[in-house]
Fold:
Amino acid sequence: MNYDQDRSEEQTCMECGRELFGRTDKRFCNDTCRNSFNRKLRAEERSRDNENIPAIFKQIRANYEILKQYHLEKLEEGTTIHITRQELLGKGFEPKFCTSVQNKGYNELWLFCFEFGYKKEGERHFELCYDPIQAK
Ligand SMILES: [Zn+2]
Structure:
């Protein structure tokens, strides 16, 4: 073991912060600290999962409701409409949350939220389509 290297690395317990002696790969002073650390880590992961997943579901549902409104007002099957990005995002739409992707050809990458498709048109517009097959 290299003495200088050993001294330059000040190892401390990841749980209680006490200085560690001996093997350089040690991360905890004892099993109590290790278990305590891992327990907290798992609890954090669980709460992160619980926070994140429902938020994504909520956003996809919000996206769906926004697109459905266009369908109810003017968007028919087999046609598309063009709206500004500002209008769509202003309603709370988040383009990155989609349920499927369809490549209909060069520069024709459509994202779908169930049966409603959307595609970026330049920097300022979106094209929307309604394709009931996508939801089946
Ligand atoms: Zn410790």
About this structure: Residues 13, 15-16, 18, 28-29, 33 surround zinc ion (CB under 6 Å). The longest strand covers residues 116-121.
